């Protein structure tokens, strides 16, 4: 048996992630591997931390990248902050909110679930009413940018309500980071996680994460150890804390961190607000073209994510056949519907490096040629 090297096709990735990776990031990945405790690498990790702080708009000391995808960032927030005695209000308006509930219940904590409408932002009034009725709740969790539905929630308003009721906030910023406004410190977010493969346009497999001083204190003061050894942030924090006393916890994914470093340098060079604006501009272009094709958005205009365009599949159109043609004739990937939207929706991503004029043009032309007139 002789298996040869794998050469993937060159696709244009306009789905829910991974997004198109900037060639600069791919070339960073191919640089020589050094030891994960090599002084030069430790210096680079410190820069990664500073760059993540910039992307999140936070001064939190406990800011780092988990060596695993966004789902591990989610789990890290929940397992570190919760104990079985806690009551958590989870605002659920899609697949990722449902995963938050799953995290809470697996810990043995109590989840009070606010069932939101699919394709809509979380309703702040519903959160306020729920907190009023449940004074025992100590944590509020929600997804800022619901990738399964394309809805953007008002994280600032939700955090401000949570704070009025003395709750810590856990926010999923996997798809929002670098794609829409996100201000961790100004908005009072206590624990936030993201992913490398969405609007950062890095390779999949890393999860930027940050804890407020209050959240970090809570983790340090825990009586029972976190049940996950790998995700126990009191151990990982030592690994990322620098000042020359870094000790072995696990072997960092050295080359993937070069890639994350490069993607964050690209973000810094562009400017965070410019990146938010670019996603908005490309979204407007795409939305205009989709409307001309008679394709309708699921989410009301003011609640739409620019980086994830959830649209109804036009009546009589074969979902799988269209996506098959886009992939095979145009090397273009768009996302299928997820959960309640399976078979009913397409999710067209404009994330990071994918949010470019040429991608919008390609996607609109490919859809126009593929859809029946
Ligand atoms: C993609 C995504 C995740 C999970 O990230 P992975 O890197 O796939 O593990 C979590 N939450 C949201 C909102 C996402 O879009």
Short description:
The protein is of the alpha/beta class and 373 residues long. The chain has 13 helices and 13 strands. The chain has 2 domains: 106 residues, Aspartate Aminotransferase, domain 1; 246 residues, Type I PLP-dependent aspartate aminotransferase-like (Major domain) (Aspartate Aminotransferase, domain 2, 3-Layer(aba) Sandwich).
Report on this model:
- There is one protein chain.
- This protein is an alpha/beta fold and 373 residues long.
- The protein folds into two domains: 12-18 and 272-370, Aspartate Aminotransferase, domain 1, CATH 3.90.1150; 23-268, Aspartate Aminotransferase, domain 2, CATH 3.40.640.10.
- Helices cover 41% and strands 15% of the residues.
- The chain contains 13 helices and 13 strands.
- The chain has helices at residues 23-29, 39-56, 70-81, 95-107, 124-133, 155-164, 184-187, 213-220, 233-240, 254-270, 272-292, 319-330, 357-370, and strands at 12-14, 62-66, 87-92, 110-115, 139-143, 145-146, 151-152, 168-172, 191-193, 207-211, 308-312, 332-336, 345-349.
- The strands form three sheets. A seven-stranded mixed sheet has the order 2-10-9-8-5-3-4, with helices on both faces. Strands 1-12-13-11 form a four-stranded mixed sheet. Strands 6-7 form a two-stranded antiparallel sheet.
- Strand 3, helix 4 and strand 4 form a beta-alpha-beta unit.
- The radius of gyration is 21 Å and the shape is globular.
- The model has no long low-confidence stretch (mean pLDDT 96).
- The structure holds pyridoxal-5'-phosphate (PLP).
- Pyridoxal-5'-phosphate binds next to helix 3.
- It comes from Colwellia asteriadis.
- Keywords: Aminotransferase, Pyridoxal phosphate, Transferase.
């Amino acid at each position: 048996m002789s298996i040869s090297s794998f050469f993937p096709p060159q696709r244009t990735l306009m789905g829910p992630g991974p997004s198109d990776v900037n060639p600069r990031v791919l070339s960073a990945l191919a640089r020589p591997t050094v030891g994960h405790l090599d002084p030069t690498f430790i210096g680079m990790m410190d820069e990664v931390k500073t760059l993540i702080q910039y992307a999140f708009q936070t001064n939190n000391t406990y800011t780092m990248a988990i060596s695993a995808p966004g789902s591990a960032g989610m789990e890290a927030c929940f397992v570190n902050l919760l104990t079985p005695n806690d009551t958590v209000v989870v605002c659920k308006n899609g697949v990722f909110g449902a995963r938050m509930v799953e995290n809470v219940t697996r810990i043995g904590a109590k989840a009070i679930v606010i069932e939101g409408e699919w394709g809509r932002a979380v309703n702040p009034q519903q959160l306020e009413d729920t907190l009023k009725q449940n004074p025992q709740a100590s944590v509020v969790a929600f997804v800022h940018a619901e990738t399964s539905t394309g809805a953007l929630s008002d994280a600032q308003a939700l955090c401000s309500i949570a704070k009025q009721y003395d709750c810590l906030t856990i926010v999923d910023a996997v798809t929002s980071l670098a794609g829409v406004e996100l201000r961790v410190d100004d908005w009072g977010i206590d624990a936030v996680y993201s992913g490398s493969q969405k609007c950062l346009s890095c390779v999949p497999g890393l999860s930027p994460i940050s804890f407020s001083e209050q959240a970090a204190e809570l983790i340090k003061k825990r009586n029972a150890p976190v049940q996950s050894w790998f995700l126990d942030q009191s151990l990982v924090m030592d690994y990322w804390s620098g000042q020359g006393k870094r000790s072995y916890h696990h072997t960092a994914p050295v080359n993937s961190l070069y890639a994350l470093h490069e993607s964050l340098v690209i973000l810094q060079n562009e400017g965070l607000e410019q990146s938010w604006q670019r996603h908005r501009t490309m979204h407007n272009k795409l939305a205009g073209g989709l409307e001309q094709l008679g394709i309708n958005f699921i989410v009301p205009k003011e609640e739409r994510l620019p980086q994830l365009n959830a649209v109804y599949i036009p009546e009589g159109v074969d979902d799988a056949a269209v996506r098959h043609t886009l992939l095979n004739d145009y090397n273009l990937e768009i996302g299928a519907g997820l959960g309640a939207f399976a078979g009913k929706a397409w999710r067209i991503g404009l994330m990071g490096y994918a949010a470019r004029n040429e991608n919008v043009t390609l996607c609109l032309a490919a859809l126009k040629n593929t859809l029946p007139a």
